[in-house]
Amino acid sequence: VLQESNGPTDAYAAIAKADRLTQEPESIRKWREEQKKRLEELDAASKVTEQEWREKAKKDLEEWNLRQNEQMEKNRANNRIADKAFYQQPDADVIGYVASEEAFLKESKEETPGSEWEKVAQLCDFNPKSSKQSKDVSRMRSVLISLKQTPLSR
């Protein structure tokens, strides 16, 4: 079965290549072969250097990961120690407006009459200048202060 085509087929391309090689002068053919060898040597050398770079990069990455993990473990340990030290402070609820859970639970167990407002005062920030809230809570603050001064009678 013959196929019709407008361009050269593989057989025609092979013949054209053979014709071109036979028509080339000897010096050009030698140069082409030398160039081909030189390019193959360069490719081999570049593959070797690329492999060396990959190995070096892999080694550097492993070392970096080890250092990073060590640093993270040190930071975690330091943060745990700092957290424990922070929550054991007597004024942990005032510093940074974070209440220590242990201190809060300890104080909440002490049920002495009249100590409710001290607990409220500990948990609330009554300083209007240090308040960094976006909402205006001055009215609520004034209500709590007035209730503390004159408690409701039952």
From TrEMBL:
GO biological process, one term: clathrin-dependent endocytosis
Listed GO MF terms: clathrin heavy chain binding; structural molecule activity
Keywords: Coated pit, Coiled coil, Cytoplasmic vesicle, Membrane
GO cellular component: clathrin coat of coated pit; clathrin coat of trans-Golgi network vesicle; postsynaptic endocytic zone cytoplasmic component; synaptic vesicle membrane
Keyword Kinase assigned: no
Sequence similarity: Belongs to the clathrin light chain family.
Protein purpose: Clathrin is the major protein of the polyhedral coat of coated pits and vesicles.
Name of this protein: Clathrin light chain
